Amino acid sequence: MHRLAGIFLSFTILFGSAFSPALAQEKSLTVFAAASMKNALDDINAAYTAKTGVKIVTSYAASSALAKQIEQGAPADVFVSADTDWMDYAIGKKNINEPTRVNLLGNSIVLIAPKDSKIDNVTIAPGFDLAKLAGDGKIATGDVKAVPVGKYAKAALEKLGAWQAAEPKFAMAESVRAALTLVARGEAALGIVYSTDAKVEPGVKIVGTFPANSHPPIIYPVAATTTAKAETSDYLAFLRSSAAKTILEKYGFKFLVSPTT
Questions:
Q1: Mean pLDDT over each residue of the chain, to the nearest integer
Q2: What's the CA gap between 102 and 224, in Å, rounded?
Q3: Which of 6, 34, 186, 259 could form a disulfide with 245 if both were Cys (CB 3.0 to 4.6 A apart)?
């Protein structure tokens, strides 16, 4: 009897250790998402886990950093980028299951200042003098060479004729949320972030909105990676659902697809 119990215990340890991690892995998905998605996606993920029991582990950073991490072999099932360029990059590196790609969301960029700033109601149009407005202060945004919000900001300022004078005043941050924090702490006099970021940070106020035609359309594509688990398709379907749409629009994102039920 004792021998049988020992054999059973050995069997349990052997096969339990072999299969438990796989079973646990099947019940979780890893999502790499643009930093600006954090608040909305946290809510969506909580709703999805409540519905399915599948845990969502999310890594938030600049889309550029995430695309490079995926390229280097980081284990992700889903990539949500804040621009089409970095999704195109990941596809070019054969890291994305291209047929799963959907251009899910739209956004806008705004000029922000600390909530107690005297700057208010700025008209952003051709001839707009951002350098003068900033005075001796810094202007925060994402790195204009790589981070999507910085790329959009530079494109807009170039089109409006404000980039050359303002460039020396820029503090380039590693992500849009890092730029948002600089302004909220008063370490930058102004910042250029997404409207959705400004909405969730009580330490800042929106003082102006960049015209949509001053920069390329702000589009957030989402897709499964080439190493994604089978359950990923259900999660991507949930991102396109009416329930997700309600959450995303609450945070100020524009839903670009017809929602599924």
A1: 92
A2: 10
A3: 259
CB 152 within 8 Å of CB 114: no
Q: How far apart are CA 119 and CA 112, in angstroms?
A: 9
Q: Is 254 helix (H, G, I), strand (E, B) or coil?
A: strand
| Per-residue model confidence as pLDDT tens digits over 234-253 | 999 999 999 999 999 999 99
CA nearest 204: which of 189, 178, 175, 183? 183
Closest CA to 81 of 134, 15, 151, 138: 151
Flag whether pLDDT at 17 surpasses 60. Answer: no
Mean pLDDT of the region 171-198: 98
User: Is there a contact between 183 and 161 (Cβ–Cβ < 8 Å)?
Assistant: no
The single-letter DSSP state of residue 241 is: B
Phi, psi of 27 (to 5 degrees): -95, 15
pTM check: above 0.90: no
- In 3D space, the residue among 103, 94, 124 whose CA is nearest the CA of residue 215 turns out to be 124
Quick check: 56 and 29 in contact, CB under 8 A?
A: yes
Instruction: Count H helices and E strands in the chain, helices first.
Output: 11, 11
Helix (H) or strand (E) holding 9: helix 2-26
Q: 51 pairs with which residues across the strands? A: none
pLDDT digits (tens, 9 = 90+) for 86-135: 999 999 999 999 999 999 999 999 999 999 999 999 999 999 999 999 99
Q: How far apart are alpha carbons 142 and 62 in whole angstroms?
A: 8
